[in-house]
Write a structure and sequence with these properties.
301 residues; mainly beta; Neuraminidase; 6-stranded antiparallel β-sheet
Length: 301
Amino acid sequence: MIFWPASSGPAGDWSEAVNLSEGFDLISVLPPKLVRRPDGSVCAFWHGARVSRDPATIGLYMRCRSGEGWSEAEQVEARQVTARYDPKFTAAGALVSLYEVPPSSLKLADTELADGFKTVNGAALAVDQAGAFHAVWVRQGDPFSLEHRLSSDGGQSWSDPASLTDEATKPNGPFNLLADEQGNVHLVWAGFGKIFYRRWTPADGWGEVSELTGGQPGSGSTSLGLAVDSQGLAHVAWQGQNLSYVQQQPDGRWSAPQILAEALNSGPGPKVAVDAEGRRHFVWQVEDDAVDLYYATLPPP
């Protein structure tokens, strides 16, 4: 696994690529994840095995950036079979991870969150500013739905599953979940040629659904880019025929889709981040004759 750190400053200079999984026999096809700790440091997670013939070495591994270097690889979950995983840190720095075991199991620690009767497809976890856990997944029922459960006591007990979608907004693609510094939780998902968004607040729970595509083609990729700026406003990017981007306004409305790159071929989808000054950063992959990574920025709005 190769990790590219973020640009180091306004000049856009980049550090050298670092191989974080050196010495591993096996790296899963599951995409690696970057998660920020409460102290601001960044940790990389991946599923793999140090020794491919030793089941005890199969699981979720973590390395964290410290100063100018990286910590040693640490096995944090001994999960031999998992379809997806989503690790997060609590405000106290404790690591929690939601993981999916095919075909119909979704767990945090040893607690089963899905009903076990319908296939689970996708798992996302957010930890809000009050320390509550939010678990979201796709339940492949009739219709497909995005389900949400909430725990306010560190995963000891959970609310009943609540469906966040209906027939008109049902999911059929990637989704993303993110908590902000204001105590809210943001959810974006792809559904039959459209991109949808909802926000959870401590006072009102889940708000109304917003449709973001504005007539543009929806997502054709396997992930959606979601970021939240320092004002608690969401930024969403998706990759279909083009790379498109929208931003949330202070009044809750959304900008019209902006095309950042045209005529893209297939790719896994964009990532988006917003820095402290409000600059938007985008990274995406294009799979043409060769597989290339691209990077672009937009100035503060």
